[in-house]
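retry 2 of 3: previous attempt timed out while embedding HDD. Reduced batch size to 1 and resubmitted. Inputs unchanged:
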Amino acid sequence: MKSKKQATSVNRSENSKKIDLDLDSVNDASTLLTTNQGVKINDDQNSLKAGPRGATLLEDFILREKITHFDHERIPERIVHARGSAAHGIFKLYKTQSKYTKASFLTDTSVETPVFVRFSTVAGSRGSTDLARDVRGFAVKFYTQEGNFDLVGNNMPVFFIQDAIKFPDLVHAVKPEPHNEIPQAASAHDTFWDFISLMPESAHMIMWLMSDRAIPRSYRMMEGFGVHTFRLINEKGAAHFVKFHWKPLLGVHSLAWDEAQKISGKDPDFHRRDLWESIENRNFPEWELGLQIIPEIDEHKYSFDLLDPTKLVPEELVPVQRVGKLTLNRNPENFFAETEQVAFHVGHIVPGIDFTNDPLLQGRLFSYTDTQLIRLGGPNFHEIPINRPIVPVHNNQRDGFMRQTINKGRTSYHPNSLGGGCPFQASMKEGGFTSYAEKIDAHKVRERSKSFFDHFTQAGLFYNSQSEPEKQHIVDAFSFELGKVETISIRERMLGIISLINKTLATEVGYKLGLKVPIPEKPINKSIPADGVEKDFQPIESKPEIEIAASLSMANTVKDTIKSRVIAFLAADGVNEQAIAGMKKILEENGAKVDIIAPRLGRIQGAGKKEILVNQSFFTAASVLYDAVYVPGGDQHIATLAADPDAIHFLNEAFRHCKAIAFEIDSKPLLKLTYFGKKLTSNKKEDGLISSEKQQDIRKEFIKAISRHRFWEREKPRKIPA
Ligand code: HDD
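retry 2 succeeded.
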């Protein structure tokens, strides 16, 4: 058998062409076609028939096997988070956390823990756009030396609901409406906002969903959150509360909503492609694992309840300690076998980590196994390669659909003597899992703690902590989403809820909807306390510890790198090739990628007669797929682009989406035709527009501008066409 990865030429039949095959895609050295039972197939062209013109015979096991397998190629997609992309990587700890936990991957700095990470949108189906306004799933499977630990989080630190019993309602409301299956991958419709406007506890999460966090630039530029409060347990059995965070080293960056909608048409795989290509180009995505540790004694210290998943712990109150690094360095070999079949579960924990009584978390502990049973067809999904732990599995579970393990011996029960007592229970010393012995002494009730009833304070904190452009984007998002709602009373009710979060926000959204802000309907929390008498609890208002949390605004994120940004160079015949070469070199040295975009593919000829390879044409590219634009000089090239409406549109759109644009002074005749060209004639400096006429070192200035990501202030006044 040839070694893996070795490329070879395989010539199978006399008249077949020689083709290069990567042996990874071939099951073994023999390339003969077989059935799934390994029987070699002699004829894959004709089914077995009673005579050349006769009926097909039921006996044809080869045909039946092939068709049956084909019929079952699709499995039920995930009910939520169906659209996802994933990658392999490693997690490396910086410093032992043994003070807080005994989990080996958080205590032993010599270990590299393999991981598999799946990012996703929530509402859309498998083939939907990556660019929906939506929460992003951020699920990490750590294959630790003590078994698998899954951190099944999102890119937002809070959730819509407080109790898992409402999850089916939430998902039914956000999915396409049941009568006509519209809209796909969008929350902008009546049933979603009907539900949300009646669920005041969703107020905080809705603010995140209406913020730019819901339209990330890249999976690589999102934060991740475990959302719930978990527990860390150390060797001595002492517990600390913990919130898990992922901090992207490239910073947290988003797109403009207009841009996201256009990308949905131009490249709906935008995030998937970005993740894939970054890894192929060895621009490995990186995050630091952050821990917010809270001593047990501080359980009731805050104005919010640590068990309430609609609340976050501001970093300003409890700093995030960065304890290790996650690097994604390998793309999956097979989308279905890995990305689709991976099964995450919040209940996959290892010794040293434990749950809290967060009622959303408690419900999730049931849901994730149950969903894999239907999705992956039975109880043996842990045997699928991507789900297998790297440590051995020994237990007395047997049989069931798709069982892979051939268990040997007579005993499948414990205790036994015939099997020598195997497998044995593991003592704590041997790493056996023991649950944290939390004291419980309570009545059995269907009730919610009153400490869960402040729904608006943190929603307001989030809004107050945003920069002006971020606030404006929230107004726009509400105006878009509620504008798509057909039932006026739902718009009005939601406007009432918004007014409880922030009055100015409600007035601005109301203006865009052409509605007066109503007196809000009193949101009511129904609850039946232990005495059995139904009571309505009014929302409470607690005094927040802080008025503004800088950590909640993306304006304060990392803005000092252009690593992996994609820059468009517009060019045509007669372009100044030195300008192209010089700018390209310095951008690439700083880690960016350059695409030369011209009116046609192939090669263009520079002013000095040098040939330049074109990467994209105006037919295949669009400004929304790029982070910044550069226009080199050259008279003939500028004249060609000035006569091309696609080139002008490209520039206008990049300007509208607040991107950095750099241009050489002789490109003026083209820029004069753009919307922003007028600004060039004035002496006023426009942030993010860099010209060799005004800036001394255009290359250095351009790099600085790209690393700022966007110049959102440019949206004022908001009258930019494109
Ligand atoms: Fe969930 C998938 C994250 C609440 C039930 N969830 C799923 C995935 C992520 C999350 C990232 C995709 C995993 C993957 O890539 O395969 N879910 C969350 C977060 C929640 C949350 C951060 C709140 C803090 N989920 C939640 C509740 C329930 C579920 C309350 C049910 C009671 N979630 C599911 C599920 C899914 C799922 C139906 C669908 C596919 C799957 O599990 O494997 O069981």
